[in-house]
Amino acid sequence: MIWLTWRQFRVSAFIMLGALAVGLLVLGVTGPQLADSWQVSQQSFFDQLATDRVKTAIFHAGTAVVYALPAVVGVFWGAPTVARELEAGTSRLVWTQGVTRIRWLATKLGVAGAGAAIVGLGGLAFTWWCAPIDDAVAEGYSDPGMLSVPRLWPELFGSRGVVPLAMTVLALVIGVTAGLLVRRSIAAMAVTLVAVVAVQLVFPLVVQARLLPPKELTTTITEDRLTEFTGRPGSAPDEMVVERIGVSIDSPGAWITSNQTLDDSGTVVATFPSWVAECAAPPGQQDAETAACFDRLAAEGYRQHVEYHPASRFWTLQLIETGLMLGLALVLAGFCFWRIRRDLT
Amino acid sequence: MSAVLRATGLGKRYGRRWALTDCTVDVPRGRVVGLVGPNGAGKSTFLNLAVGLLTPSSGEIEVLGERPTGRRARRGKVGFVGQDTPTYAALSVADHLRLGAHLNPYWDGALAADRISGLGLDPGQRAGRLSGGQRAQLALTLGIAKRPDLLLLDEPVASLDPLARREFLQDLMEAVAEQELSVVLSSHLVSDVERACDYLVVLVDSRVQVAGDIEELLSTHHRLTGPRRDPAQLPADQHVVAASHTDRQSTLLVRTDRPILDPGWEVSQVDLEDLVLAYLGRSAAEPGSSARPSLEALR
């Protein structure tokens, strides 16, 4: 049975592994260069990187590829493995050749799952490549573009570490499940694509923030910490009603999930008094007036409440999310084994 | 005669629809059984149940003395050639033989190779490029080379042209003669059965209408033609299978173990087609007419 599964699988496996090898080669050549650049330049690292078209392109393309891998594996490996056989009737051929369905499905899941895991290792290789950038972010350096987005942020979290591996395996099982339920290749592939993308959206948008309770911090609002100052025009000309203030915290690479201003009674401020508009000043044009405004904010009891996940939690969160995804994959696989025992002609 | 396939009150339901109800039949060992019935009669369902691809909704089915998912079936003692003879389009003929060798405990590689070369198939050819007849032959090879005790074929020749049909059945007969296996072959064409089988099971509306040795069936069924009369007045041992009347004349198809003595009848032999059609027509005319009398009469 392993022979048959491998025989059906090998062409696409070679294509996939070939592409993976090319990717690893590119990362292997450019990775040490990136590490050297970080060692040598330190604070000007991001300035240099921004001018390095090739490595910037690898960074963006690599992120995109690692995000796309699960869908590719689920759609092209997971969905057709089962659906094509049910569609063509070849499953009946095999099931009447002295192979139980359980063994049939187990072999398919095993072989394709191993393939998916190998492909998912590509995520780890990319994480290795990005290490200098992550180090620079951890040191507090930054770049106005996408390059210095901390790896803990939901935008990138799923493209680093072991989560891509778990997501790839999960996508494969989603594909197999869809194939088993839909029983037609093309339809199963479409369902798989939608389901995988949905899972890839739900995890960063909904799940990631709930994996661990965030750390909390309450701090005074000062001029140099200010990161956000949002308002809308008031009723009078030149008047501005301030609605939101955000501050930074001394935790490079942290993921801030909540950044709210509290008043002296401890409730969240919806609209600030009109004098707060005085605090707004373009960078470099702060004067005594803005300083007085910040002093008044502190004196009247306004303070900033920040909820965040520090960068040090990266691997903890990675492992929890990986466990969740693999657990989900196991549940789906269990469902497949239950379903395969029932009538399928 | 021990039964190679035995169904008792077998039924299969898809949702609310019963594809097969209350099917009771014994298939003796060492026979080539033709399972005949119109489309939708439940032939495929019956064979799929027999090979364990479906699970019964009611009743029981035994294959080689145990349930279809039992150890014998798993050890490859039951061969199956499915409807439309599925094969892996992307795999070559040789790959299919290797597949059989990998998946079956009693695989007869020499037999398989002989058959393939005897058929003139190129082992390197992909199954997807084969003609319908060649693909059916390949599927049959997979079914035979596993050395089963029982081979089930679900409309194997339905999609073949008449020549390929004949070749396939001839080939099947040779394999049966060499290997002493029992065969159940379903078809909606009487001519296929006539060519290949020595035992007949007629399945209509998911019920067995008649089952028995073909020669015996032919010798116990008679067409009676004579002046018009009521079929109910026949002797008790003559069962009317089909009756048609004109104003003056009655034509009856009756089954009886004894000679027809009444001189008022002109007695003629029936052929298999007449016989099958009579049973097919009977069930349509009398829905729910029980299969029991005919079965009892057989024993």
Could you characterize what this model shows?
The complex is a heterodimer of chains A (345) and B (299). Chain A has ten helices and five strands; from the N terminus they run H-H-H-H-H-H-H-H-E-E-E-E-H-E-H. With 345 residues, chain A is mainly α. Chain A has two domains: 239 residues; 97 residues, no CATH class. In chain A, the strands form two sheets. Chain A has a three-stranded antiparallel sheet, with no helix packed on it. Chain A has a two-stranded antiparallel sheet with strand order 2-3. The mean pLDDT of chain A is 90. With 299 residues, chain B is of the alpha/beta class. In chain B, the strands form three sheets. Chain B has a six-stranded mixed sheet, with helices on both faces. In chain B, strand 8 and strand 9 form a beta hairpin. The C terminus of chain B is likely disordered. Chains A and B meet through helix 1 and helix 4 of A and strand 5 and helix 3 of B.
Spans of chain B of 5+ residues with little confidence (pLDDT < 50)? Answer: 285-299
Strand fraction of chain A: 5-15%
Give the topology string of chain A: H per helix, E per strand: HHHHHHHHEEEEHEH
Q: What percent of residues of chain B are in strands?
A: 25-35%
Please state the oligomeric state of the protein chains shown: heterodimer
Assign the structural class of chain B, choosing from mainly alpha, mainly beta, alpha/beta, alpha+beta, or little secondary structure. alpha/beta
Shape of chain A: elongated
Biggest interface: A-B, 21 and 32 residues
